[in-house]
Design a protein that fits this description.
38% helix, 9 helices, 15% strand, 2 domains, 10 strands, Rossmann fold, alpha/beta
Length: 318
């Protein structure tokens, strides 16, 4: 099927059973991995970007030709660069210098204006903390006001979660032939977690939802922050209140260390030939751990959030 634009290629990504990894570890059950790194912008955020822009067009909060501004770790910015480029909106991506530089290059190649914000004092390169994100938020808010822009606001705009509720959840259920018992997802803006869990819970009221957070920065579970800096880019910002997670059907919170996410992403490449990023490693690590315990014998779904190509300058791929 041919599409009128690349926007038609967003979603409907393939899914793969990670049976090799499961069998190699002597586990009971299955893990279904949805390859959202095969979206046009190489991440799951393409879905949310399209959902936010189309919702804003529908309710009139985005005017024709108006500039769009958003803070990003790179993935939402890439998705918005694509959507805005096709639809004719100038786009400004505001990103911390702690994120991998290849993300900024990709956004610029897609026509975005990229504003890089220096990290907070004490932050480490390739590790974006909540303090770093706060500085990015301040700059994004300033640019939005100065330019009279539309703020995509991925942490609050309902179009983010709605996109995953309408597409990701039903697709995962269909991909699994209706066999899913659980869904686990690393929390960034909260849109994927909330939207996908709501859709899956409607399809299977007994399905369990797990939120994955970085070890030492698991504030959604109510834990104290002991390690605000971690290598799992795109989430785990130690934000205790994610608006999009309000009312989401979460059953349990899990933590994954940066080392565990890194090792699992590398294992995913070696054992399943899926070349993904840190957050995908965190998701798969959580799913495998679930098969060791509360989901033994079950079917756990995860997203392969983005491509390993976005991390070539980090220690994920030495």
């Amino acid at each position: 099927m041919a599409h009128d634009s690349v926007l038609g290629a967003i979603g409907r990504t393939p899914a793969v059973w990670l049976d090799r990894m499961v069998v190699a570890r002597g586990l009971e059950g299955r893990v279904l991995a949805k390859l959202d790194y095969l979206n046009p912008g190489f991440s799951k955020k393409d879905r949310a970007a399209l959902g936010i822009i189309e919702a804003a067009e529908a309710d009139g909060t985005l005017r024709p030709g108006q500039t769009v501004v958003e803070l990003t770790s790179g993935n939402m910015g890439t998705g918005l660069a694509i959507v805005c480029g096709v639809k004719g909106y100038p786009f400004v991506a505001v990103m911390s210098r702690g994120n991998s530089p290849e993300r900024a290059r990709q956004m610029r190649a897609l026509g975005a204006e990229v504003v890089l914000v220096e990290q907070a004092a004490g932050s480490r390169p390739s590790e974006v903390s909540g303090d770093d994100l706060a500085l990015v938020e301040m700059e994004a808010a300033r640019i939005t006001e100065v330019r009279g822009a539309f703020r995509a606001d991925q942490f609050r705009h309902p179009g983010n979660a709605a996109a995953h509720e309408a597409t990701t959840g039903p697709e995962l259920w269909e991909d699994s032939d209706g066999t899913l018992t659980a869904f686990a997802d690393f929390a960034g803006s909260g849109g994927t977690c909330a939207g996908t869990m709501r859709a899956l819970r409607r399809l299977n009221p007994r399905l369990r939802g797990y939120v994955v957070e970085p070890e030492g920065a698991a504030t959604l579970s109510g834990a104290s922050v002991t390690q605000p800096g971690h290598p799992i880019q795109g989430g785990g910002y130690a934000m205790a209140d994610l608006a999009l997670m309000s009312g989401a059907p979460v059953d349990r919170y899990l933590t994954v260390s940066g080392a565990e996410a890194r090792d699992t992403a590398r294992a995913l490449a070696r054992e399943e030939d899926i070349f993904a990023g840190f957050s995908a490693g965190a998701n798969v690590a959580a799913a495998l751990r679930l098969l060791e315990g509360p989901e033994r014998g079950g079917v756990v779904a995860v997203l392969i959030c983005d491509s390993g190509l976005k991390y070539l300058s980090t220690d994920l791929w030495p």
